[in-house]
Amino acid sequence: MMEDVLQRITFHKDVLCGKPVIRGLRISVEQILELLANGVSSPEILEEYPDLESDDVRAALVYAHHIVAGETVLDRIAA
Q: How far is the CA of 76 from the CAs of 64, 67, 70, 73, in angstroms?
């Protein structure tokens, strides 16, 4: 099921320089994640960007999860 939602994430060199975007729109995964990180709710995002669907916001989160899950941790210094 998570793989299905990832089909909403697209890449094209002519759209936002190849950054991951939602369904070919000029709305990047990064943009959605930044909004969420700043406390904007999913319903607020959908209201602000009427071309988006709730599964698009979910796809951005699933994409971020896959990136972090595949991360290789080499060495970290404790803060």
A: 20, 18, 16, 7
Average pLDDT on 4-19 reads 89
Residues pairing with 10 in the sheet: 21
CATH number of the structural domain spanning residue 9: 1.10.10.10
Whether the pLDDT of residue 1 is over 80: the answer is no
Q: Is residue 78 part of a domain?
A: no
Q: Which of 49, 7, 2, 55 is nearest to 27 (CA)?
A: 49
User: Residue 65 pLDDT more than 70?
Assistant: yes
The model's pTM = 0.83
What is the 3-class SS of the chain, one letter each residue?
A: CHHHHHCCEECCCCCHHHCCEECCCCCEHHHHHHHHHCCCCHHHHHHHCCCCCHHHHHHHHHHHHHHHHCCCCCCCCCC
